[in-house]
Write a structure and sequence with these properties.
Elements: E1 3-8, H1 13-16, H2 30-46, E2 52-55, H3 59-70, E3 79-81, H4 98-105, H5 107-115, H6 152-172, E4 177-181, H7 183-194, H8 198-201, E5 212-216, E6 222-227
Parallel strand pairs: 1-4, 2-3, 2-4
Antiparallel strand pairs: 1-5, 5-6
Helix pairs in contact: 2-3, 4-5, 6-7
EC number: 5.4.2.11
Organism: Lactococcus hircilactis
Protein name: 2,3-bisphosphoglycerate-dependent phosphoglycerate mutase
């Protein structure tokens, strides 16, 4: 039975500082680096061997993927990077301390922006220092595809074509797949995999560690779901 292993990137420097991160390309913290290494060790201990790996174009996920593969002795496995696996774009909240944002906009409003399935946060200006417009890694995209703000609904719409075109076909071919991504892009795919409602997905949290494993039958119905090491 094919296996899909999701690893949310290890703790980032902005996770540590309690900042909204989104598409800002921040690095792993020391703890995050160690979490990625430990993820690789858990994968090795579980005897899971991958055929292909996928990650985003943000370095915290890329480094997590590389470290997890290295410490499971699978650094040779092909890795495909895609913007479609990026974290949810937090728009104008990007770079703000979450407590400061709550003080400015109110706890209730920030909670709605963070947790609502289909409410967008304020849009990011195109000349913002964290804007993806003009970033070379997105130069191949039509400008209209580059978001200025996303909710989980939009994140799923963006990630779903990658699931359908890349990940699902690999699993259907019997391949074991590693996905090193982000809390919300993984949540979006979990919603699709488990056929969760809009309300049900809001109660799903993806920790930085340990990795989440799904096992499937030939029709991509989930047969097992578990966290490594638990």
């Amino acid at each position: 039975m094919p296996k899909l292993v999701f690893a949310r990137h290890g703790q980032s420097e902005w996770n540590l500082a309690n900042l909204f991160t989104g598409w800002a390309d921040v690095d792993l913290s020391e703890e995050g680096t160690q979490q990625a290494i430990e993820a690789g060790k858990l994968i090795k201990a579980a005897g899971i061997e991958f055929d292909i790996a996928y990650t985003s174009v943000l370095k915290r996920a890329i480094k997590t993927t590389d470290l997890a593969l290295e410490y499971s002795d699978q650094l040779w496995v092909p890795v495909v990077k895609s913007w479609r696996l990026n974290e949810r774009h937090y728009g104008g909240l990007t770079g703000l301390n979450k407590a400061d944002a709550a003080a400015k906009h109110g706890d209730e409003q920030v909670h709605i922006w963070r947790r609502s399935y289909d409410v967008l946060p304020p849009a990011m200006a195109h000349d913002d220092q964290y804007s993806a417009h003009g970033d070379r890694r997105y130069a191949h995209l039509e400008d209209s595809l580059i978001p200025d703000a996303e909710n989980l609904k939009v994140t799923l719409e963006r990630a779903l074509p990658f699931w359908e075109d890349q990940i699902a076909p690999a699993l259907k071919d019997g391949k074991n797949v590693f996905v090193g991504a982000h809390g919300n892009s993984i949540r979006a795919l979990v919603k699709q995999i488990k056929h969760l409602s809009d309300d049900e997905i809001m109660d799903v949290e993806i920790p930085n560690f340990p990795p989440l494993v799904f096992e499937f039958d030939d029709h991509l119905n989930v047969t097992k779901e578990y966290y490594l090491g638990k």
